[in-house]
Amino acid sequence: xxxxxxxxxxxHETAYAPELAGYDELDVLVADTAADARLRVERRGVDCVVCxxxxxxxxxxxxxxxxxxxxxxxxxxxxxxxxxEELASDAIAAGVTDYLPARTVDGPDALRDRILAVTExxxxxxxxxxxxxxxxxxxxxxxxxxxxxxxxxxxxxxxPLVVEDQRDLIGKNVHDVFPAAKADxxxxxxxxxxxxxxxxxxxxxxxxxxxxxxxEARTTALGQQIDGxxxxxxxxxxxxxxxxxxxxxxxxxEELETLNRINQVIQDVLxxxxxxxxxxEIEQMVCDRLVDxxxxxxxxxxxxxxxxxxxxxxxxxxxxxxxxxxxVDLGSDVVTDPATRAMDGDELQVIQDIDDTELLTExxxxxxxxxxxxxxxxxxxxxxxxxxxxxxxxxxxxxVFSERAQSAFAILGETIGFAINAAKNRKLLLSDTxxxxxxxxxGSQAVFVDACDTLxxxxxxxxxxxxxxxxxxxxxxxxxxxxxxxxxxxxxxDQVEEQRVIGDDDDDSVIEVxxxxxxxKRLVEAGxxxxxxxxxxxxxxxxxxxxxxxxxxxIVDTFQAAYPDSxxxxxxxxxRPIQTAQxxxxxxxxxxxxxxxxALRTAYFAGYYDWPRGSTAEEVAESLDITSATLHYHLRxxxxxxxxxxxxx
Length: 649
Hints:
The chain is an alpha+beta fold.
């Protein structure tokens, strides 16, 4: 050996230390007591301990036990003065490296040779272990049956486990390192491994420098005792990344299953919308079916009102320990709740975690926590520019409002809004009385006011045709001025997206206009039927009808919120004829498909049937974003249906 071997001598009945100190191969340390020996082993790298069996404050086997807990593999030579077979047997069972009766030692040379022999054997074992673990990426320990870390087998590339220096674990018990419950679990696992005589596995988390890491333990019995104790080889592999991938796959699978269930529920709701005749039926049906799906515990709808004083559900279903009633009791504290935000911004409001959201007040969070409410969503119910209200859902689970689920709910909100609008129009159509509202507007928000004032002309709405993406084609008749001049005057207005002159003579001066927003479009989306709309002498006048039982105040407030310079100048209850013009038209067009009716109405208002024609087939087709061939097909089918309604038996 090229380096000195550090040997610690603890002698009470022998005195070899002075003589051994004279050898160049040895660096001799002397301990006077057992306690002193333990301290020296802890404070300095000792290669070998030589100890008498009888000591003033202890005995040799007790020193062996204490030293091995700190340094499990250190060579220990028991130099026995009064030894016998019983002591020799106990020493070997305790794991002594060499049992040496003092009477058999033939001088200091012989003792030196024994010391060098045992340290060289241990060095050989250590070299093999180091060679084995140089490229070993995992942490491995020898842990005895009582839970003491006895030896470390680890390569330089191994990640830290619990502590930065794995050697700090040697000599400690698992209860010194881990919480009691986890330490007990480790001891149970060690016992199972020793009993099974095979390879056992387990996974467990460890908090390392504030970060949670996951480890997989693979354990097997060592096959021999350490200091009289059975032991296992415990290999700990960091599986944090693998577990993260597995968890992500699990979450994706769970999310996909949830999304499939959500889509099934939405399809069920859509089918139910076809059967619902009124807004009340629509909203109650939606709430009932969403709660029946078991994905959500509570569902309710709220009205979009200009003035709100707390939560006042229109329809509701389900319950979680009176959660919705408790929200209602909060009164004005929920003025800025997620439903209100959804209606104000026409945007989904999502709460993935009650404890991590700014959408709820502290009182609302407290109510939720008390009832284990974990997440929620508020969905605006809108059609065009009109917000009818909001649908709110809550769940006692997390992970039910993923991004894909949110997209599905956004479509559901638009569909419900469309159904509510259709129900309003259906109610108006079937009623024999209606409420007539008359609005007057001045200023630039009415697109044609400035143009008519400048050109000293008048304009009136000739007809409306629904177009793609919720747009309306406005057909406007111009009197006392060329349509081309009016079209040029309104072309630069922000609301005007497209405009086209259909006729430009005194008898038929018409403009086709597509606007992103207009007072007429706003009223139609609110469920009103526009009867007339005229612009003259710096003022626009719009007359519309709404159902007798409609919330007129809400319609007027919503309209005036969008057009502050408007004024309601008339509100009248009007009797409708037994068969209105609209009903007569519907009797003729009831057999037409939606595309056939749209094509026919567009062609008519665009002047396609006039002579000379106000629009060519190509121009009408372009307005509808279809080909000429498709337009001619729809027109021919529609004309055949109308002729059949008039002439067929």
